[in-house]
């Protein structure tokens, strides 16, 4: 009790708040109002803040994703069909064996890229398992530790599960939502997404190489080719740079005589190199997160805090389903960052 200025006494009363845990259904007595609290029995986290459910733009986002999927599919078909039309008459004119080899390579890469794209775009990204909640006798101690409740799906959500408002579902181990595949990347299709990136990078690099190889045979021969070659082979650095400049200018001058087939090859080369660079960066980022035992969303949520995951090649082996016995053959790669920390 506290004495006031008039000599009377004022009593201070600590008001207690009652709340119900959604996980086990127990009535909890809180010392003060807490919008977010964790149950001491089941471990579930309750958020009492009102959640505004957004459903107006769901159809618009799904339509946007479908458009991106169609654009990406048309681009892949254009690269495959355009490359076959533009490059393979040149390759078969060199030799029959060369044409057959590159035809088989193209068919293999095209089937690999299209099949992995189909799997990652149309396979379920991973639904969380249904778990019992709401009744105290059935929900054990710590059974819902760090679980939250998804107001969109009206069911429990594990710490590594996130709700995607574009797909309208909770996704287990969600990495991100990719509009170009029109689907989320999660536990159910993450391997297929990595396989698609690897196949697409290899295919675009191969397509760029074939475009350059075909353009060399399509463009008119350079004048003074022997002089250019002597500058490159026997000259100093300045002579080599001058020779490369002269060769580039000579090919640009010959470009006015290029045919429609050559223009298609030039476009395919530029497009393939651009896509290969972008996908290579994305593939490196994905493999880095897998190496650290994270997803993209968990990486964003852990910024500014100490990392719980262990950086190890074991994470990559587990992700791809390889036996852990392979890890002993990679001691240098595994210990690189550990040595750096010390």
TrEMBL record:
Major subcellular site: membrane
Q: Where in the cell is it found?
A: Endomembrane system
- Domain of life of the source: Eukaryota
Q: Where are the transmembrane segments?
A: 67-88, 94-122, 193-216, 264-284
Family membership, please give it: Belongs to the DHHC palmitoyltransferase family.
| One term under GO cellular component | endomembrane system
Q: Which reaction does it catalyse?
A: L-cysteinyl-[protein] + hexadecanoyl-CoA = S-hexadecanoyl-L-cysteinyl-[protein] + CoA
Per UniProt, what is one Pfam family of this protein?
DHHC
**Which keywords annotate this record?**
Acyltransferase, Membrane, Transferase, Transmembrane, Transmembrane helix
The organism of origin for this protein? Cardamine amara subsp. amara
Entry membrane topology: Multi-pass membrane protein
User: Which PROSITE patterns does the protein's record reference?
Assistant: DHHC (PS50216)
Q: Which EC class does it fall in?
A: transferase
Name the chain's protein: S-acyltransferase
**InterPro entries in UniProt:** Palmitoyltrfase_DHHC, PFA4/ZDH16/20/ERF2-like
EC numbers for this chain: 2.3.1.225
Q: Where is the Palmitoyltransferase DHHC domain?
A: 146-300
């Amino acid at each position: 009790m506290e004495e006031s200025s008039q000599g009377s006494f004022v009593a201070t009363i600590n008001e207690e708040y009652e709340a119900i845990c959604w996980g086990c259904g127990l009535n909890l007595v809180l010392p003060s109002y807490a919008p977010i609290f964790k149950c001491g029995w089941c471990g579930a986290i309750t958020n009492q803040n009102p959640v505004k459910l957004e459903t107006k733009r769901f159809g618009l986002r799904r339509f946007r994703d479908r458009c991106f999927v169609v654009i990406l599919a048309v681009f892949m078909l254009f690269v495959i069909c355009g490359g076959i039309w533009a490059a393979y008459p040149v390759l078969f004119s060199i030799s029959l064996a060369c044409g057959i080899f590159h035809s088989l390579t193209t068919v293999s890469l095209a089937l690999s890229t299209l099949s992995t794209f189909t799997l990652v775009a149309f396979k379920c990204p991973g639904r969380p398992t249904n778990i019992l909640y709401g009744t105290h006798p059935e929900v054990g101690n710590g059974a819902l530790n760090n679980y939250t409740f998804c107001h969109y799906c009206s069911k429990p959500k594990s710490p590594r599960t996130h709700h995607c408002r574009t797909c309208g579902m909770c996704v287990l181990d969600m990495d991100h939502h990719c509009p170009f595949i029109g689907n989320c990347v999660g536990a159910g299709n993450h391997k297929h997404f990595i396989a698609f990136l690897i196949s697409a990078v290899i295919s675009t690099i191969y397509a760029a190489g074939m475009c350059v190889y075909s353009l060399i045979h399509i463009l008119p021969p350079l004048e003074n080719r022997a002089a250019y070659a002597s500058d490159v082979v026997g000259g100093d650095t300045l002579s080599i740079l001058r020779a490369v400049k002269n060769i580039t200018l000579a090919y640009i001058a010959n470009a006015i005589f290029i045919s429609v087939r050559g223009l298609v090859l030039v476009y395919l080369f530029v497009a393939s190199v651009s896509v290969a660079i972008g996908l290579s960066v994305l593939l490196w980022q994905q493999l880095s997160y897998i190496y650290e035992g994270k997803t993209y969303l968990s990486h964003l949520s852990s910024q500014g805090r100490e990392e719980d995951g262990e950086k190890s090649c074991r994470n990559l082996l587990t992700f791809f389903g390889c036996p852990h016995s392979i890890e002993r053959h990679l001691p240098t790669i595994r210990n690189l960052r550990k040595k750096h920390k010390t």
